[in-house]
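To: structure desk
From: M.T.
Subject: fold request, one chain
Message: Could you run this one when you get a chance? Sequence is below, nothing fancy, just the single chain.
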Amino acid sequence: MSKMEASSAARAVFEVVRSVLLWAAAVLGALCIVGFLLAIVLGVRPLVVTSGSMAPSIPTGSLILSVDTPASELQVGHVVTVARPDAPGLVTHRIAAIEPADLGVALTLQGDANQTPDVSKYQVTHASRLVAVIPFAGVFVQAMQSVRGLVAIVALIVALLAVYALPAPRLPRSRRSAGRRRHAGAIAPRRLVNEPVPVPAGAAGQK
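Reply: Done. Structure tokens follow.
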């Protein structure tokens, strides 16, 4: 491969990498804006799944979006997030049964990957009902909550800005000069040569 061909290939790779990074940044920014608007307008609650009890429908590390739903609107088959009755934390499982309770309803929940329902029942007046799943996006959300993750994200943003600001690799001088010569030759007007016009004999003295 000649020097000029290598330079052209490097320039093409640079342009592709820059385009991919800019598109990735644009998509990420759009997702953040959409998530923010959904949280404000519709009351959507984002949560990160940290276990595999709902696999394969909800893989570990997924970001789930839920809306607060009254107990009267919950149905068997809904995936809900509720507080654990006997331990701190939340659980996201599918409703296997609903029974009336003194206050609201009593839910029997079961993870899709579990063979049996949860031992305890969950008495609720409302619950966060799943409306959307974004696989593995929760990894990014969790990273933002740690110092290392924030440093990595800032470094990524700086790298994107640097790639955008850097000029593309320049072609070798010989190729640029040849290109300019070809361009000049293509647009330069042709020079007209004034050739003498023959005059018939005796015509010069006629009036």
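Reply (cont.): The first strand starts at residue 44 and ends at 48. Let me know if you need anything else for the meeting.
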